[in-house]
Amino acid sequence: MIPIRDTVPSRRVPVVNNTIIGINIVFFLLQLTQGSGGDHYLLLYGLVPAKFTDPQISAYFSLGQKLISLFTFMFLHGGFMHLIGNMWFLHIFGDNVEDRLGPARYAFFYLLCGLASGMTHLIFNAGSRVPTIGASGAIAGVMGAYFILYPRSRILTLIPIIFIPWFVEIPAFFFIGIWFVLQVFNAAGSSGSAGGIAWWAHIGGFVFGILFLKLFDRIPATGFSSRLQSATRKKQSHRFQVIKPTHGETASDLYGALTITQYEAMVGARKLVTVPWGLQNRLYNVIVPQGIGDGQVLRLKGVGRPRPDGTRGDMLLKIKIQHI
């Protein structure tokens, strides 16, 4: 299952989340420049449990090198697809958690989730000499927080069936719940890091993400966070929107609502909307013209139900302008 987007738009630009994604990309580019020294680079900055538990190996590393690896490992990746997969999950789930916690609390939350995931991996794989790298443990913490904050959100998911892409909306609690159960089964059925995947790091990150959310949600936001949140308030609504159509006076026409901001109403916008159709969703591009007013209607021709003559009805989207 490949998540495409969630249905909960963030109200602000996720500055910290975007910065974390940028840092991960920079670290990956630095990895590519190591050449033959790549293995040493991973041993130094990756999380190697034996550095903390095996006296002979521990002697090769200073205290500072061992401590810094507890944080640097979460910014390293084993390949391009590893990086892309992790950053895509962080992009989808991280912006909403940052929106709730604020930039400062979210930054500390993310780092603590990564640290907790690494410590969990270290406990369950104490003698391992294999470097563990990747942001997935920290991202698991973000997913744990999302699981608690937005259980009723829906995740537009791509399920490839042979060569046919099948898009379906899955409740967030179910999508993330299935993901977590798979981590537990894989951890129970392996040494905890079989196939190069640190399953216990995922489990630890997820569980501690829920615990840290409860803690950080009680800590008041700083004045800096409040000012930054105000400055980063989005001028645009979510580009991807889900339309829940209703039937009109005629059986063939459908009706729905499209939400935009005051800024988008003034300058225009392009939206990608999904319309539930049977067991999957159909995607349509919608162009919102400049100067549109609240309550005006856009007509999507041929998107409605079939008529007796073989043609299709239309969908009429009523514009709702957010006043933020």
UniProtKB/TrEMBL annotation:
Q: Does the keyword Transmembrane helix apply?
A: yes
Membrane topology label: Multi-pass membrane protein
Q: Which residues form the Peptidase S54 rhomboid domain?
A: 66-213
In terms of Pfam families, this protein maps to:
DnaJ_C, Rhomboid
Q: Which UniProt keywords apply?
A: Hydrolase, Membrane, Transmembrane, Transmembrane helix
- InterPro entries, per the entry: DnaJ_C (IPR002939), HSP40/DnaJ_pept-bd (IPR008971), Peptidase_S54_rhomboid_dom (IPR022764), Rhomboid-like_sf (IPR035952), Rhomboid_protease_S54 (IPR050925)
Its cellular-component GO annotations read:
membrane
- Spell out the subcellular localization from the entry: Membrane
Q: Which domain of life is it from?
A: Bacteria
List membrane-spanning regions: 12-32, 68-94, 106-124, 130-149, 161-185, 197-216
One example of the protein's molecular function in GO is: serine-type endopeptidase activity
Q: Which GO terms describe its biological process?
A: protein folding
Give the main location. Answer: membrane
Domain Chaperone DnaJ C-terminal: where? 251-322
What family name appears in the similarity comment? Belongs to the peptidase S54 family.
Q: Which PANTHER family match?
A: PRESENILIN-ASSOCIATED RHOMBOID-LIKE PROTEIN, MITOCHONDRIAL, RHOMBOID PROTEASE
| Name this polypeptide is given | Rhomboid family intramembrane serine protease
Origin species, per record, is: Desulfosarcina ovata subsp. ovata
